[in-house]
Amino acid sequence: MTAKDCGHHDDERKKLYRRLFAGALGFVIVVLFLILLIWLILRPTKPHFVLQDATVFAFNLSGGNTLTTTVQVTLAARNPNDRIGIYYDRVDVYAAYHGQQITLPTLLPSTYQGHKDSTVWSPFLYGNAVPVAPYLGVALTQDEIAGTVMVNIRVRGRIRWKVGTFISGGYHLYVNCPAYINSGGRNNGIAVGPAAIKYQLIMDCHVDV
């Protein structure tokens, strides 16, 4: 075999490799384009959260620097999508005041929401003698004198989208619900037992995915 023949075979082999690479690349591009097209057509919308009420059993500042909190909240989540389901994976909820977490996170049960479905959770949130910054103690005292304390009910976790049999990877879920609690006495809420007060809120929450 001459050197010319060897060069001819090398050229043919290179052309074959280029065709295989171009074919594989084209296939990947088509698949990615179809996934993007389906995603744009379906247009997944993030879930809608509403804080319906909060029942306060304890919200006591001791010594100016420790806060004890026991509250039960009712959270409603709705899937607004017509063709997309939502898996809620390891989602927890906690209370915060002026950006500081004041209760332990409470884990919500894993849930699947079908199209246009709604889910309601009623978790208890506990924080026993949680140390707070001195300025927060001052702010809380001022809010109580003013008659309204704003506590943020926050949800964090991961969700997945379900389109037909396809299930996406995990996406971070962040929810912030403002809860305005009147501190002017039991007449501002509904008495629940000897010590608890239930406040009807119906507050829309800010959701980030």
Automatic annotation (TrEMBL):
Transmembrane stretches, by residue range? 20-42
Membrane topology listed for this record:
Single-pass membrane protein
Q: Give the principal location in a single coarse category.
A: membrane
| Entry keyword annotation includes Membrane | yes
Q: Which is a GO BP term held by this UniProt record?
A: defense response to other organism
The Late embryogenesis abundant protein LEA-2 subgroup domain sits at 74-175
- Any single Pfam family the record assigns to this protein: LEA_2
| Compartments, as annotated in UniProt | Membrane
Q: Give the record's keywords alphabetically.
A: Membrane, Transmembrane, Transmembrane helix
Q: Single GO cellular component annotation? A: plasma membrane
Source species, domain of life: Eukaryota
Entry keyword Transmembrane helix: yes
Q: Which PANTHER family match?
A: LATE EMBRYOGENESIS ABUNDANT (LEA) HYDROXYPROLINE-RICH GLYCOPROTEIN FAMILY (PTHR31415:SF166), OS05G0367900 PROTEIN (PTHR31415)
Q: State the name under which the record lists this protein.
A: Late embryogenesis abundant hydroxyproline-rich glycoprotein family
User: Could you tell me which species this protein originates from?
Assistant: Perilla frutescens var. hirtella
